[in-house]
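**Backbone shape codes:**
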Amino acid sequence: MTGTATTTFEQVLGLGDDALIAAQRLCEWCTRAPEMEEEVALANIALDQLGAARLLLTYAGELEGAGRDEDDLAYLRDDREFRNVLLVELPNGDFAVTMAKLLFLSAYQRLRYEQLAAGEDARLAGIAAKTVKESTYHLEHATLWTLRLGDGTEESHRRMQQAVDEIWPYTYELFDDNALRQPWLNIVEPVLAEATLTRPEDPPWAPRGGRQGLHTEHLSYLLAEMQVLHRAHPGAQW
């Protein structure tokens, strides 16, 4: 089915780019996670995000109608052509930063996919119905770690609070095009409270621009690593 009047190439591309860049960042924890079980968990979450990215970028290519497939969109665009939010391209930082990013992102993705699963575009609704289940697991995983670190030792609490404070301003960009901010807060704020963490104050200014192709320098480095093989051997097949 083709998109409805309310489904645009840019909308689907943004969702796909969020998932793709989140997957790439999470993969960086392979061989570096604090414990083996967590390494497997983060790799599985990365694979979930990559699976969602593939479905969304394939659909985005069809909506665009320019003959580009998922690989073209993933590997043959420069940073200014990506539409992911800045949150997902930020460096992993320490483990607390990664968990703060995952908590905030997965809470948003679950709500957004729930919204799309009930929408009129059957193709997008089918993708969303699948990914909402995965987002629920991602949210549960991030919540458990936020509680464990926030309400753990003095040092783990300090690091988790610092991570929340650092990432919080980047969450505002998630809600430029929909009304999910309050439902998102209804999920996130109780987690922070139970983890004995302080919810940051609303900043006077929040970083934005990812949806318009204006990114941090971090995305260029990430794309260079992600795209190098495909660009070095265009059209190569196994």
The chain has one domain: 9-198+211-232.
